[in-house]
Amino acid sequence: MLKKIKYIFLIAVLIGGMIWTFYFLFQKSQKPPEVFQTAQAFDTTIIKKTVATGSVTPRKEISMKSQVSGIIEKLYIEAGQQIKQGDVIARIKIIPNMLNLANAESRVNSAQLNYDNAKVEFQRNKLLFDQNIISKSDFQPFELKTRSCEEELTAAQNQLQIIKEGVSKSSGSVSNTLVKATISGMVLDVPVKEGGQVIESNTFNEGTTICSVANMGEMIFEGKLDESEVGKVQSGMDIVLTIGAIDKASFRASLEYIAPKGIVENGAIQFLIRASIDKDNSAFLRAGYSANADIILAKKEKVMAVPESVLQFEKEKVFVEVETRNQIFEKRFIKTGLSDGINIEVLEGISKEDKLKLPQLAEIKSESD
C-alpha cells in the first residue's frame, strides 16, 4: 500500500512539473505589451536651408610683379605686414640681356656718328648763312637734321641706360627697378627671396609674383552649390557661415552672386556662388579658411511644431495618432507648413496639449534641446 502511494506521488510530481514547464514556456513566448512614447507640439523657430561648402577669401587680392627682369637685391616686406599704396616692396638689380645690350650699344654708336656728321654739316652751312651766301630756307634743313640726330642719340642713350640700370636720366627719380605696392592692405604671401631671379610682366609672360596683397577688411565667401539646390536660391538671401577654425562663432553674410554656368566636378554639376561677409565680431578671418554656408531659404519664428517622425501619410494626406486614453490612439488629419527636415510646422488639427504617438526609437529634437 505504501509503495502504491509513493508511486502515485511521483506521478503527480511529474505531471505537476510538466504543467509548470509548459506554463513557463508559454509565458516566456508571449510578447510584452508594446508601450509607445508620446510627444507634444512645441513652439520653435523653423529654418529651411541649404548648405554650400567653400572658403573665405579677400574680395581684393592683387599680385605684385616686377616690370623688369633681374635679381631681387632687397625685399622690404614680409607676410602679415600692413603696407600702403606706393610703398616700396622690393628693389631689383638689372641683369641685362646680352643681345639687347649689344643692340642698344650699336644704336648709340650709330646715332653718335649721325649726330657728329650732322653737326659738322650744320656748322659749315651756318658759316655760309652768316655770310649771306645761302638763304634761310637753304640753311633750315641742316638745322632740323642736327636736332633730329641729337634726339635720336639721346633716345639711344636712354635706352642703353634703361637696359643696364632700369632707369634713364630723363625719368628723374622714377625707376622701374623699385617695385611699389599698387594697393593698401596686408601682405598675404611672399613667394620669393632676396637673391632670387624675377621675370618681367609683359604681353607674353605673366611675370614673377613678388608678393600678394589684400584688403582683409573686406572678406567674401566663395563656394559651390549643387545643381539640385541652385534653383532654390537667389541673390540677397541671408547666409550663416560656420568656420571650422573658429569654434563657437558664426558670421552673417549675404548672397550676392550665382554663376550662370555650372562646372563639372566629380561627375556632378556645381555652380559657383559668392557672398559678402558682414564682420560683426572681433574674430580675425584669415584668407583660405574653409567654411560651410547655411543659405536661409525660409524662416518662421515662434510657430507650433512637431517632430517629423510623428507624421504618417494616407493618400497624400498627413495625419498623426493622438492618445485618447492610456495607450489608446486615434487618427487625426493635420495641416502642415514649413519644415527644416527635423521639425515641421503644424497649422491646424492638433493643440499643444495633445499627446502624439511616437514611433519606437524615434528622437525628439527641438529648439530647447
Protein architecture, described:
Helices cover 26% and strands 39% of the residues. The protein is α+β, with helices and mostly antiparallel strands. Helix 2 runs antiparallel to helix 3 (136-165). The protein is elongated and about 180 Å long. The protein starts with a helix and ends in an 11-residue tail after the last strand.
Task: Describe the structure concisely.
This protein is about 25% helix and about 40% strand.
Average pLDDT figure? 84
Q: Could you give the distance between the termini? A: 78 Å
Strand content: 35-45%
The arrangement of helices and strands along the chain is: HEEEEEEHHEEEEEHEEEEEEEEEEE
The number of distinct helices, counting runs of at least 4 residues, comes to 4
Q: How many strand segments?
A: 22
Binned, the helix content reads 25-40%
Record the strand order, biggest sheet: 2-11-15-13-12-16
User: Largest sheet, if any?
Assistant: 6 strands, antiparallel, barrel
Helix/sheet category: alpha+beta
Name the shape in a single word.
elongated
Radius of gyration over alpha carbons? 44 Å
- Unreliable segments (pLDDT under 50, ≥5 consecutive)? 362-369
